[in-house]
Amino acid sequence: MALTLFSYPGLFGLSDNNPYGLKVATFLKLCRLPFRHEHILDASTAPRGQLPFLDDDGVVVGDSDAIIAHLTRKFDLAIDRGLTPEQRRTDLLVRRMLDDLYWVMSYSRWRDDRFWPAFRDAFLAYHPQVEAALLEGARSYNFQRYHHQGIGRFEPEAAYERGLRDLEALAGLLGDGPFMFGQDVHGLDATVHGFLANIYFYEIDTPLRQAVQAAPNLAAHCHDLRALAAQGLTSAAGARAGVR
Question: In the chain, how many domains are there?
Fold first, then answer.
């Protein structure tokens, strides 16, 4: 078995500064599937020009959900085997909501002049081989994406209000947890971690980060999933044994 995950570079101690790549990396670790992680910036050769993508012995799969579905089928993974039909519907709805949160998170890094300098400087410090002009070009490109998607037409506070409502809904669904569907980890937890960790562990004090810090269950989920992924465990007991 030779699995290679291609995704964006890491930042602030995370293996990927993009939630979709971190989502897949976390899923692979939770399922104890060995893989090689290749960090790239140029997505031009990726399926549909998007990262992440997976190379499975020459079979290339793009899109984070498609990658997880491919791995689940091929290796008959048990992580979601016991989900009820209702839980599977919740899984889908939460993933779609996080797609909305993605745009607000990305906006906070690239579009908001209050936080862009901190993001730019941190990225260049972590990855000195990257030229500042490349990031400026990426920023201009993202401005176009935000305008066409719609989030770029919002003033910052109105944009953040969308993301804050997503986080409030997520905290309500998680409840006492510790995981999205109770005591055991499922694929949805890997997805949630990809997004929450890319907010919570960032050393940039955006309104989104403040909201996650203020929600004890969301913050605990960040720590627990990081500990579990590092150990390849999927139980609540394993999370409590991990170091926060």
Answer: 1
Q: Is the pLDDT assigned to residue 44 strictly greater than 90? A: no
Can you give the residue range of the structural domain that contains 209? 3-241
Within a 13 Å sphere around the CA of 111, how many CA atoms are in the beta-carbon half?
A: 23
Residues near 95 by beta carbon (within 8 Å), at least 6 away in sequence: 65, 188, 191
d(CA 149, CA 14): 27
Q: Judge contact between 239 and 233, C-beta under 8 A.
A: yes
Taking only Cα atoms into account, the Rg of the chain, rounded to an integer number of angstroms, comes to: 17
How confident is the model at residue 232, as a pLDDT?
73
Read off the pLDDT of each residue in 198-213 and give the average, rounded to a whole number. 97
Q: Give the closest residue to 164 by CA, choosing from 208, 209, 204.
A: 208
pLDDT exceeds cutoff 70 at 239: no
Q: What CATH number did the domain enclosing 58 receive? A: 1.20.1050.130
| Residue among 10, 22, 8 nearest 126 (CA) | 10
123, HSE (Cβ side, Cα atoms, 13 Å): 23
Does the pTM surpass 0.90? The reply is: yes
Q: Secondary structure of the chain: what % helix, strand, coil (to 5)? A: 60, 10, 30
In single-letter form, the type of residue at position 91 comes to D
Q: What does the DSSP assignment read for 83-137?
A: --HHHHHHHHHHHHHHHHHHHHHHHHHHT-TTTHHHHHHHHHHH-TTS-HHHHHH
Positive or negative CA dihedral for 57, 58, 59, 61?
A: positive
- Token pair 């300098």: residue: 117
Per-residue confidence at 3, pLDDT binned at 50, 70, 90? very high
